[in-house]
Write a structure and sequence with these properties.
The protein has 418 residues and is mainly alpha-helical. The protein has one domain. Helix content is 68%, strand content 0%. It is globular and about 60 Å long.
Length: 418
């Protein structure tokens, strides 16, 4: 029996729902070690406790971190030192609110907040637009739970849904020509500056220059808040603190083979080493060229393909960043939802673009592929390849649209009557 369009739409939905059930079962089975403090949330909670106790200046002090973690994560057997807090100081203010509760309660509340933010994203992105799928918008939340990035975020207690929510707000503001507000929102997302800064650069090159005042305002605000929390001396030491962690081994933080970016992929190809040395300098011009290229393609295509431009800039930010893990792929929710909530008056694409797009999405959505690269190959960096495929597909879409816009501009204007 041939597959109807409706049946083809429901097949991936069914697969993702099934993976969501499996992911939920796995999370339930690991609830005890999660509660004991094995996840990354322990570093966030530690930072919150230090801030709440008025010890913000000790935020990046390993001895102070270890002392706090021994209060709630003493049963963690795999660490001989603290799980370090690596975010900028201002995000610790958020986690100081969670430090009012015991660790297990704080983790539960944090997980509930992330699920709420995740649930809101489809309604923020699709706001005021048509929805072309045969299932309701709220069902997309269940589908997102079926993806491996969200599973890993919940497993380790990361902050990816918060970042994705801020990106969703910025997309909505860009789509309604509130560029200054979009920039301000992106400035609040600087707790993952390695992803936000490349994205903003591509956005500015793409012609949305009114983003800059809002971004500069909120960036200055979070910078000043961070300085007030740890002192100017502590803030100036923050880069060297990150560099020292990057060079250290055995802290459970630096695993280049697990990075879903060009850095991880290159290290996998040339040989795994504890510290990549000067390999990032080799990638620096490649990263710069990719960011500039994404911005120029977005600029030529114009706002007609805002979702594709946003998606390409997001992918470039991920693959060119120094750190990018599975949960960071949650950012792709925003452009993918936007592409499914748009009029059909966009330019048609060629077969190669469709194949690249389909193959990239297929591999990125299939949880078994992640587990195979993670467990069997121990090289999650290979998931950079489908991400690259999807990025190339979006670049081809933008290039095709940009060529069409250029042809329209070059077309002669017909003479009017008389």
């Amino acid at each position: 029996m041939p597959l109807t369009p409706r049946l083809r739409s429901w097949l991936p939905v069914t697969a993702l729902l099934w993976m969501a059930v499996i992911n939920g079962a796995m999370l339930w089975n690991t609830r005890v070690p999660i509660r004991q403090g094995y996840g990354d949330f322990s570093s966030f909670y530690t930072a919150g406790v230090l801030v709440r106790r008025g010890l913000g200046a000790e935020l990046y002090n390993p001895a102070a971190q270890w002392k706090v973690q021994q209060e709630f994560a003493s049963e963690v057997e795999i660490r001989q030192g603290p799980l370090p807090y690596i975010r900028p100081p201002f995000e610790a203010l958020l986690f100081s609110l969670f430090a009012t509760w015991p660790y297990a309660t704080a983790l539960l509340v944090w997980t509930g907040l992330k699920l709420a933010l995740l649930s809101a994203i489809p309604f923020v992105v699709v706001r005021g637009r048509c929805w072309k799928e045969p299932f309701p918008r709220w069902a997309t939340v269940l589908l997102v739970l079926g993806t491996f990035p969200e599973f890993m975020d919940l497993l380790v207690g990361q902050d990816a849904p918060l970042l994705a929510f801020l990106f969703a707000i910025s997309f909505w503001q860009l789509s309604t020509r509130r560029d200054t507000g979009a920039g301000f929102t992106l400035g609040l997302a600087l707790f993952k500056f390695q992803l936000v800064i490349p994205f903003v650069v591509a956005l500015l090159i793409g012609g949305r220059k009114r983003v800059l005042p809002g971004f500069a305002t909120s960036a200055f605000a979070v910078f000043a808040i961070s300085a007030a929390m740890v002192g100017w001396k502590g803030l100036l030491k923050y880069p060297s603190y990150l560099l020292a962690l990057n060079r250290a081994t055995g802290v459970g933080l630096i695993t280049p083979g697990n990075q879903m970016n060009l850095r991880g992929l290159l290290i996998f190809v040339v040989g795994r080493v504890p510290y990549p040395g000067g390999i990032h300098w080799v990638l620096a011009p490649v990263a710069l060229a990719a960011i500039v290229g994404a911005g120029l393609l977005w600029r030529k295509a114009g706002d007609r393909l805002l979702a594709e431009g946003f998606g390409l800039a997001t992918i470039v930010a991920i693959i060119t960043s120094y750190y990018a893990y599975e949960y960071d792929l949650l950012l792709l929710i925003v452009p993918l939802l936007a592409m499914r909530a748009r009029r059909d008056d966009v330019p048609q694409v060629d077969r190669v673009t469709r194949y690249l797009e389909t193959a990239g999405l297929l591999f990125l959505f299939l949880t078994p592929v992640y587990w195979f690269t993670r467990v069997q190959l121990r090289a999650e960096c290979l998931m950079t390849l489908p991400l690259l495929g999807l990025g190339i597909a979006l670049a081809r879409r933008l290039s095709h649209a940009g060529a069409g816009v250029g042809a329209e501009r070059r077309a002669p204007i017909p003479d009017g009557p008389g």
